Amino acid sequence: MMRTTPGWTVAPEPFDSPVAAALWRAYYTEVSDRWYQLHEGHATDPAELEREIAADPGAYLAPPDGVLLVARYEGEPVGTAGVRLLAANTAELKRVFLLKETRGRGGAAPLVAAAEDAARALGAERIVLDTRGDLVEARALYARLGYAETEPHNDEIYADHWFGKSLVQAGQAGQAGQAG
Description:
Elements: E1 3-5, E2 8-12, H1 18-40, H2 46-55, E3 66-73, E4 76-87, E5 90-98, H3 108-121, E6 126-131, H4 136-144, E7 148-149, E8 161-166
InterPro entries: Acyl_CoA_acyltransferase, Bact_Acetyltransf, GNAT_dom
Keywords: Acyltransferase, Transferase
Protein name: N-acetyltransferase
């Protein structure tokens, strides 16, 4: 399940490792501060930030029904993508993130592709995600990678947009039952 692109590697990482914890903090700080700056004109209250980070340790990204992937650029951990099964054939993409200083260097597409591979390995035929309206770069990335906007699949309070993508290649659907 390891993918390589020049300068980039993507591989599974325990959701509770120090590397995962540091990247979760960076991710959550950025998206929370962005929301508060947009809607309230200030950064996230530090006490609230600590409570929210602690409230979502990401245990749903642990095997057997989940996986956390860490992207490394030139060996340094710089991003994450998580996958968890929502149903027998549907996975959810979570925590897609690259540190600001590594964006624009070609890491997002292989990171999401590795997450899609991980979802397939979990048995998923479809992958879904949610995101916010102000995360325009994320929405553009998902559209570029073949995700289409869908009806909501959850009632996440901060979600404004929901996307989905088939993980089954044309011609693969229904072939599993034809063997033999």
